[in-house]
Amino acid sequence: MEHRKVVIIGSGPAGYTAGIYASRANLNPLLFEGMQPGGQLTQTTEIENFPGYPEGIQGPEMMEQLRKQAERFGCEVRPKVISKVDFSQRPFTLEDEDGNQIQADSVIISTGASAKYLGLADEEKYNGMGVSACATCDGFFYRKKKVAVVGGGDTACEEALYLAGLCEKVYLIVRKDYLRASDVMKKRVGMKENITILFNCNVVGLYGDGVVEGARIVSKVGTPEEDHFTIDIDGFFLAIGHKPNTDIFRGQIDLDEAGYVKVIGNTTHTNVEGVFAAGDCADPRYRQAVSAAGTGCRAALDAERFLMETQGV
Ligand code: NDP
């Protein structure tokens, strides 16, 4: 059976950065690209907040560069998905979608998270043409324009506040008659004059000629006061939560209630010695490319130290 010192699962900024560090440490890492090579950033357009790109860079291009940088130092990138893991004993056993098994002395999990969408056909139709799941990434393109944010949690409030600083008008569309967000966030949102909260509202469609020009909304659905109306918007932001891509690790390592990998203290160690986690799969809070890259670096350093302590390499 193929045997590696370090196997990295996932190919976002965290995975590739782990690949760069682990290969430069001569650990000959093997990185599985997974279902979405390059991760969430391949779905965004321009990235303007990653340090080192003063003019910005397209998401797919940045991921291509990260992949090349990892490969330059000997990280092997395999276009396969890991579908099963056994962390019950070392070396760990991983199985790809074709049933090929690999043994690993250490594993870095960097499988990312996926933004949740409402499931409307129009979200797909206008993807990248007005529909986004990241205000920090795309908000700048809507300066002085009108946008809507869907969701009633802390993320939705945070996104709405961020956008309120850039945009002429922000609608916060909440399906219930209250915000689930923390009191401090609710207060901040309430103080912004250019945020209008639409309670008891569900978005049922988007319209526009090639790009988003508005949203179709139903309020108080199923009640005698049910109402159908539209709002004119240029940008439509989803903030209804993220789902970490950790299903295959359930029962193998500790996950929190939402499925995020639990790491120990200020490290990338999981509860299984030799298994490390980096990036959005272990981060419900920051979820930025640069913070994911930072934890990828730390995971590789943690893995290197672990191998040094257990194997002297
Ligand atoms: P949450 O799960 O807290 O909130 C999701 C929101 O989306 C809820 O209001 C929910 O509505 C709504 N929603 C879910 N599905 C749909 C749907 N199909 N249609 C319409 N609305 C929908 O997720 P968050 O991402 O906001 O937060 C995740 C965690 O991260 C939380 O613990 C949060 O506190 C934390 N966080 C903290 C921050 C901070 O401290 N600054 C910033 C960001 C996040 P409903 O209420 O009806 O279920």
* Weakly predicted, low-confidence segments: none
Mean pLDDT: 95
Bound molecules: NADPH dihydro-nicotinamide-adenine-dinucleotide phosphate
Share of residues in helices = 10-25%
Coarse shape? elongated
What portion of residues belong to β-strands?
25-35%
From N to C, what is the helix and strand string?
EHEEEHEEEEEHEHEHEHEEEEEEEH
The major sheet is characterized as: 7 strands, mixed
Using only CA atoms, what is the Rg? 21 Å
**DSSP helical segment count:** 7
Separation of termini? 21 Å
Number of strands: 19
Q: Helix- and strand-based class? A: alpha/beta
Structure explained in plain terms:
Helix content is 25%, strand content 27%. With 313 residues, it is an alpha/beta fold. The longest helix is centred in the last third of the chain and has 23 residues, at 289-311. The radius of gyration is 21 Å and the shape is elongated. The mean pLDDT is 95. The structure holds NADPH dihydro-nicotinamide-adenine-dinucleotide phosphate. NADPH dihydro-nicotinamide-adenine-dinucleotide phosphate (NDP) binds at residues 118, 150-156, 158, 175-176, 180, 240-241, 284.
Output the keywords.
binds NADPH dihydro-nicotinamide-adenine-dinucleotide phosphate; alpha/beta; 25% helix; 5-stranded parallel beta sheet; 313 residues; single chain
